[in-house]
Amino acid sequence: MDGRDRMDNVFEEADLRSGLRDGGQVLGAFIVARSEEDFVIYLRCNWIRGRGFRIIRTWRGSSGDRTFKNLQSAWGFVRKFHFLGRVTIYPAGDPELRQFVGVSPKDLGEPVPVVRAVAVADGAPPPLADHATPELGPE
To answer: E strand or H helix at 10, and its extent?
Structure first.
């Protein structure tokens, strides 16, 4: 993992409110359109070290990324934190997203790693390496 999707690289709305209350500013923002009805927001703020952007998450990340069902509500979320600069909308997988630090692999269009685990019960040996299963194909 390259650190792009770590929990300390995210914002919740409460983090933004607290930072702004303490005199901070939003320095940059962009929106990623995952679909026509699924938008996520990335922000960069002056109270965070580095030049990375952070995705907005739900409360404590309990439901993952905070998504917006339409572009107007995503744009309104950015504006309510007094950011008056340009807000660019990128489709998920756009190569331009690679210029930003902190973008989730999901939004970069990178495949999500799949981990295959073999369950071994009662000391039975795991299946042989050349064994093929219809669901998984050759192992």
So the answer is: strand 10-11
User: How far apart are the C-alpha atoms of 81 and 84, rounded to whole Å?
Assistant: 9
Contact 55, 32 (CB under 8 A): no
pLDDT in tens, 45-64: 999 888 899 999 987 656 78
pTM over 0.85: no
Provide the residue type at 4 as one letter. Answer: R
Pairing of strands 87-91, 137-138: unpaired
d(C-alpha 38, C-alpha 48), whole Å: 27
By three-state DSSP, how is residue 95 classified?
A: helix
Strand-strand pairing, 87-91 and 54-56 = unpaired
